[in-house]
């Protein structure tokens, strides 16, 4: 099946950047510039590429995905990434669908999902980010979802059905384990997601891996293995990345308040904060904040 209509629909409905649509949970994106490496978090999402290629780095693992491929993210991870070949004349275009654990959990209770057994004890956790090939059926479903944008009256009735179709296609695909475990409340991925959510809300607090393991209802060694398998990072690395991203956002608003920002995100030493900030973003806090503010001006 040709990607031409898919590309044209995304291009018509995506203004610039990542945009929500009239369909709940459906996103479209247009990136006109590959730009430098940007830092963000993934959210839990399915992304299908219509044009261009993106490179994501998480915990030292690189994920490239382009036309004919999709990416699924089942845990909200800090990532850095950029589009390799986007230009104003040839922008990167994509379709996104937010993955809702409650919908996946409901689908996992159906008879059709009975073949997907829970992972055996000792089986490794699926990664939180995975790349797969966009099948003709998945492309057809995303096309029908995008066509609804031209028929808003149909959205409340048809969009939920197409969402479930898309979810089923990726749940039963080669990367399905990553998606299915979103719906399993007792899966190791869901336990790690629970801890990640707590860490994002308490990023400035000191942490002990033993306490996080208790929160996940796992032994410290099993928790550490599961956390690294899912996120490609240790808990300490994850916390540092979240702290530095939060600091970057604060410095964009108040670039001169470096010491206060360091303490606010959990650092006890401004000098350590500055060293780790430079290591993460390639510039000192003051230099990076000035560059961000300059690029944000019209």
TrEMBL record:
Q: What segment(s) does the record annotate as region Disordered? A: 278-298
Q: Which Gene3D superfamilies match?
A: Homeodomain-like
The domain of life is Bacteria
Looking up InterPro entries in the UniProt record yields: Homeodomain-like_sf (IPR009057), HTH_AraC (IPR018060), HTH_AraC-typ_CS (IPR018062), Tscrpt_reg_HTH_AraC_N (IPR009594)
Coiled coil regions in record: none
* HTH araC/xylS-type domain sequence ranges: 193-291
User: What keywords were assigned to this record?
Assistant: DNA-binding, Transcription, Transcription regulation
Q: Which residues cross the membrane?
A: none
Q: Note the PANTHER family from the entry.
A: ARAC-FAMILY TRANSCRIPTIONAL REGULATOR (PTHR43436), TRANSCRIPTIONAL REGULATORY PROTEIN (PTHR43436:SF1)
Full protein name: AraC-like DNA-binding protein
Q: Which organism does this record belong to?
A: Agromyces ramosus
